[in-house]
Every structure is written in structure tokens, then in C-alpha cells.
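#lab-general

N.A. 3:47 PM
ok so I finally got the sequence cleaned up, no stray characters, all 115 residues accounted for. can someone with queue access submit it? mine expired

B.Y. 3:52 PM
send it over

N.A. 3:53 PM
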Amino acid sequence: MSNAPRRAKALAILNNTKMWRSNYEPPLLRLLWRLGIDVPPPHFVRFVPMFAFAAAWFASGYGLAMWFFIWDEQGTSSIVAAILSCMAGLFFGLFMAAYYARGRRRYHLPDWKSL
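B.Y. 4:20 PM
back already:
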């Protein structure tokens, strides 16, 4: 089954919760959908995949930005920069996964596979 009908149903459920649209349909997600990448809304992603995705993209983005703007000029070694980026990504991923899991419980959202 294609995810398009599931996504439409999930977005209708999320819209009925009265939470902000930008919360359940963030700009990055809308961009992925426009590019044809069919992923579920973040409230319907399980904890571990959400943790891994959020940690990976944040660590890489944070690490690159910090390297070009601060760490390179300070003479920070690449190993220390990688460790700091990974730590920041792990904290951010944990926070985001917990945030969306809390929203799933708070609004009594069904499982993605049951839609």
C-alpha cells in the first residue's frame, strides 16, 4: 500500500488535534514530500528511527557549521570536532524522539501501520 492515503489520513488526524501545522508538518518534511520521498509525519515515526534520523542530520549539520565558523579558526582537532558533533547530535536526537513520542501519547495517535 502506498503511503499517500496513510499520510492524508495521518495529517487529517493531526489537524484535528489543533496542534500547529508546523509541528506535525515541518518544512523539511514538506520538502521531502515534494521531492517524492514518502515518509510519515514525525508523530507517527517510532522512537529509535526518529532518534537516529534527528541525531544524524543534526550532528552533521552542526559539525559542518561549527567547523567552518568556529572550530577551524580555533585549531580544534578533527577528532574532537567529530566527538562534539556526535554528542550534540545524540542529545538533539534523544530530545526530538522523546518530544514526538510524548506527542503520540498525549494525543492518543494510532500506530502508523494501523492507518
